[in-house]
Amino acid sequence: MIDTGVNRELERQRSAAVARALGDPKRLCVLESLAGGEASVGELASRVSCQVPNMSQHLAVLRSAGLVTARRDGNTVYYRLSDPRVLEAYQLLQTIAR
Q1: Residues near 14 by Cβ (< 8 Å), separated by ≥ 6?
Q2: 61-94 b/e (C-beta count within 10 Å ≥ 16 → b)
Q3: pLDDT per position as a tens digit, 16-58
């Protein structure tokens, strides 16, 4: 059994990773875009006005934090929000920031 102090530290580390992922305006724009449904890297890059290599880096951060998931269809990778609560968290951030 893992000590509850260790569990709490792991939870704090995961929370910090999510907070870092949400700390970039382009990534927030990606989350807004994905609120409408699944999109490819190219589609997201176009919507967010970002070059594909940079978009891929942003998506890697969001994926690592567990905020988005990906699926491959041939050569195309499609992303979507991993959980509807991701958008709720973003909206809460917007409310606090006002």
Answers
A1: 66
A2: bbeebebbebeeeeeeebbebbeeebeeebeeee
A3: 999 999 999 999 999 999 999 999 999 999 999 999 999 999 9
Domain positions in the chain: 4-97
Give the whole-angstrom CA distance, residue 2 versus residue 6.
Answer: 7
Entry pTM: 0.88
Q: What is the DSSP string of 31-95?
A: HHHHTT--EEHHHHHHHHT--HHHHHHHHHHHHHTTSEEEEEETTEEEEEES-THHHHHHHHHHH
Q: Which CATH architecture has domain 4-97?
A: Orthogonal Bundle (1.10)
Q: 68 forms bridges with which residues in the sheet?
A: 81
Q: Which residues, listed in sequence order, are joined to residue 39 by a DSSP beta bridge?
A: 79
Give the whole-angstrom CA distance, residue 81 versus residue 75: 20
